[in-house]
Here is the input.
Amino acid sequence: MTVTRFEAMPAPPSTDADWPVPGDISFWAAVVVGDEGMSPEIPHVNNAEYVRWIDRLAELATDAAGFTRKWHLDRGTMWFVARHEIDYRGEAFAHDQLVAATWLHSFTRTSVRRDTFVMRPSDDRVICAANTRWAFVDLKTRRPTRIPAEIRSAFPPPHAVTAAGTNGRPGP
Here is the structure.
């Protein structure tokens, strides 16, 4: 059994594809699909696996900005998912080589919206697009708490445009 691997990329890949991703503020990763998330009856990635990918990409993006899980635990905070919206656009298969991007879409006092976009460059197939609301939580009270200025300032200003370019919903 192989595990899905994620590797940070310094920039978006060169391709003729029209990526609906704000390249200037996105975290990019190469993804090699393992076979641990395959549906047993149909040999493609199970949709529950995409939720794990979205979580892992958000973690990698936050780590890259210096706010690791250890950093959060030392301060008694953590990001919790409040809502996922996922548009499944295509199938992914074991050993596929994908590219993913994730970026902050908007902030509130205690939460962020993060968009995630996954594509297979070999055929320019969009695999999924997602929008996740992450709540910044005080681990002692288990309640949302104000996002510190140091986190806000570490990320580029969020764009009002999502992967779809409209009304906060992920696009193609």
